[in-house]
Amino acid sequence: MTQGKIRILCVGPSAVSYRDLLAGFPVEISVAEEMTEGIGAARRTDPDVIICSAHLPGGTGEAFLRKVREDDFFGGSGFALVSPGTGETDAHLSGGPDVVWDGSETSGRLFREIRLLARLRGDGEALARSRERLDAAAILVRKQKAALKKMKRAALNDRTMLQNTLRQVTLMNAERDRLREEATLLSRVNRGNREGIMTLISSLIEAKPGCPRGHGANVAKIALFMARDLGLDASETGNIERAARLHEAGKLFIPDALLRKSPDEYTPVEEERMDAHPLKAETLLMGFTGFKAEASIVRHLHERFEGTGVPDGLKKDRIPLGARIIALADGYEEIASADSSPNLGEIFSRIEARVGSRYDPKLMPALHRYAAAHPPGDTERCIELSMFELKPGYVLASGIYTALGAKLLPVNTVLTEAAIERIARYNKIDPLDEKVFVKGTVQ
Ligand SMILES: [Fe+2]
User: Is this structure's pTM higher than 0.70?
Assistant: First the structure.
């Protein structure tokens, strides 16, 4: 329709008469006299309704109808056949027109029929558009179905992959647990082996002359206490304890005759040989698995704090801490075990004589704490005090050393006002270890 008007094509000898008949109705009329002209007009005007005479020059209205219907261009137009003469309408309907008139309709009735045909055409077009939309929706649904199928396949693949990955992780966890168990077992075996080796070496050492039974274990006990007192961690204290137990292992390579001699009987060559026994111990321990740390400690047992020892002449803190601790513990144990009634004051007097030259002064407080906690036999009491608690008359149970290792006051010093002032004065210049050991009871 154009601007609310129904487009009508009238074909036939009396086509022009419809202009008059439908004058005043909202219609736009084109006319054609015969079939060929009608086809051309139909293509040109795209009519909503075609009104065609049943008899055309050179053909029939029904033939024209077929022609029109074959042409997709105006397949949707309503087609009305006008067949004058009563009784022919039913016969014409079987030929395919939408409506057949006998030519006697009034203009009002004719328009209503035309409007109905036009509306049917409009409905048909709307139906066609709906069908197109449905087709498009169907295509979309098909595409979405295909996409869903693809996604489902992908999800299935992902699930399979996930299941495989989980299976792998489970297998890896089982393997990890198995390896952990093996490692634990091996570690237990190694620990057992290490303990066995230490017991064997200790027994061999104690079978040698001049190597008292229990000496290695005692030194290990003292060294372990000192290492813990100094705040070393479990790994370090373990290494020091084991090295202490085996510290005399080098003596296994020294002839018994030499071991029976007193140190003041050694010839220079023998003295050198005795000095070198920690190197032999190092070599022996390196021959076993799991003793590397202990071997490196034992190597330096004969270093001297002042730097004149063997084998490397290391000085002060360059000497491994473990070796410094064991050397002091060894010296203490040798002196303490040599006397059946050891006197702590006497023991420390002899130790103090070598502090700064052989032994590290910084380790003395730890040794004193050990001695206080484990008094050797019938010993006099030893008390730990802060340097600010010192009073005249107290007797030092250990020497007081500067941070650099210089002796400020020797062991057995009876404190005076002047000595206490000296300690305080020095402490301001070069802070001292705050802990001081004094003999006897204090008030
Ligand atoms: Fe020793």
Answer: no
